[in-house]
Amino acid sequence: MIEVPVSAALRRVAPSATIAVSAQARALAREGRDIINLGVGEPDADTPAHIRSAAIAAIEAGHTRYTDVDGLPQLKEAVCKKFSRDNGLAYAPSEINVSPGAKTVIYNALVATISAGDEVIIPAPYWVSYPDMVCLAGGSPVIVPTSTATGLKLDAAGLESAITERTRWLILNSPGNPTGACYSEEELRALADVLLRHPHVWILSDDIYEHLLFDGLRFFTIAQVEPRLRDRTLTVNGVSKGYAMTGWRIGFGGGPEGLIRQMAKVMGQSTTNACTIAQWAAIAALDGPQDFLAEQTVIFQRRRDLVFAALAEAPGISCDLPQGAFYLFPSCSGVLGKRRADGQLIQSDEDFVVQLLKHEGVAAVHGAAFGLSPHFRISYALDDATLEEACARIIGFCSRLQ
Fold first, then answer.
1. Is the pLDDT of residue 384 over 90?
2. Given CB 3.0 to 4.6 Å as the disulfide criterion, which of 7, 232, 319, 349 pairs with 374?
3. Residues near 166 by Cβ (< 8 Å), separated by ≥ 6?
4. What is the pLDDT of residues 259-303, one digit of tens each?
């Protein structure tokens, strides 16, 4: 067998843990196992009917050809209206990038701007792909640990200590994956004050969970809080999470025109445009009725409360109440060092999730993949009955450890 050549950049990268867990769960289900997958990060709701209808209408109208590399003009206009309506941010269409998912918006920006030796500050815990995307772009991720004292969020002191002359970007994610933590206006103001002192640092604000915020909290994004940072901020969002359109693959970003041009250059030599039909569907999502968002938030808050209360009954498991998104990030420190009745030892959060899947059929993602152990991430984007069953299995598993 011929050995496949692997680039130096790819050798620095691990496979996505969240994708790997979901693939393993699907494989076990195909074998006939009763599997509950709490590892996948997507709403269980169908895409709203008016959005699906817009996609069908686009096909019937013959909107099936290439578009401008970084998005339909009509979609860019809809994105501009969304940023103005929801965030108080004024962008021109020339300052908008549309890509095949918010993940690609982020990747395009990093590839377009990072050179060898450049550093990107990433608070931990973080979404699994951030560090590896930085590595693929040739940069160096600088991981800044956070603590429960700050709600697992970056504070001004932590940011200040991480900035060097080589810092190119700071990545912020709010509400966050995996924690569900959300930065308040005051917390963003404190970070902004630091960033104003370091004009060489750009900010990538990943707001993909913006519409999933609980307990009446109001969402803020950093360019809104501090307009002086607007011209070195890329505000990233999309339709995947809020509009239940994960498979449609439409993300977008607003930023300075020079950056947007460079991102389009990357796309011109890689993906070209996002799916034309999905772009027309995204226009319907952004310009159409928005009441779906509030209804969905009510559902997810109820599920959050259900799972949070249930996991309080699991011996050795502790968790802070998330403010948004649809994840819990419990600590499993209380089960480490314990054994199953068959003698299997739980030494790490990875051991915990591996044994949970093997013996209880519940898939979760270990905290080390997000940069913080001993934790694990579970998604509550499933129906109540399934979540109740999953929690009962987790409680049973923990209760039987010795």
1. yes
2. 349
3. 117, 118, 119, 140
4. 999 999 999 999 999 999 999 999 999 999 999 999 999 999 999
Q: What is the mean pLDDT of residues 295-312?
A: 97
- DSSP annotation of 229: G
Six token digits for residue 275: 């799916």
| Residue 284 sits in the same domain as residue 296 | no
Q: Is the pLDDT of residue 9 over 90?
A: no
- Examine residue 216 and state whether it is found in any structural domain, yes or no: yes
CATH code of the domain containing 327: 3.90.1150.10
Number of domains in the chain: 2
Is 3 part of a structural domain of the chain?
Answer: no
Euclidean distance between the first and the last CA atom of the chain, given in angstroms as a whole number:
47
For the chain, give the mean pLDDT.
Answer: 95
The tally of CA atoms less than 13 A away on the side-chain side of residue 172 is 30
Radius of gyration of the chain (CA): 21
Residue numbers of the domain that contains 221: 65-288
Return the CATH number at 164: 3.40.640.10
Domain boundary residue, one of 233, 259, 288: 288
Pairwise CA distance, residues 288 & 179, whole Å: 30
User: In this structure, are 282 and 150 located in the same domain?
Assistant: yes
> What is the secondary structure of 2-53 as a DSSP string?
PPPP--HHHHT-PPPHHHHHHHHHHHHHHTT---EE----S-SSPPPHHHHH
Q: Which amino acid is at 163?
A: I
Residue where one domain finishes, among candidates 288, 312, 332? 288
Report the pLDDT value the prediction gives residue 186, as an integer from 0 to 100.
Answer: 98
Helix ranges (DSSP H) in 256-348: 257-268, 276-287, 291-311
What percentage of residues in the chain have a pLDDT greater than 90? 90
Cβ atoms 185, 217 nearer than 8 A: no
Q: Which two tokens stand for residue 94?
A: 């020339």
Over residues 105-147, the pLDDT tens digits come to: 999 999 999 999 999 999 999 999 999 999 999 999 999 999 9
- Please report whether residue 57 resides in a domain: no
In this structure, the answer to whether residues 163 and 175 fall within a common structural domain is yes
DSSP-derived 3-state class of residue 166: coil
pTM of the model: 0.94
Backbone angles phi, psi at 145, to 5 degrees: -65, 145
Domain assignment present for residue 190? The answer is: yes
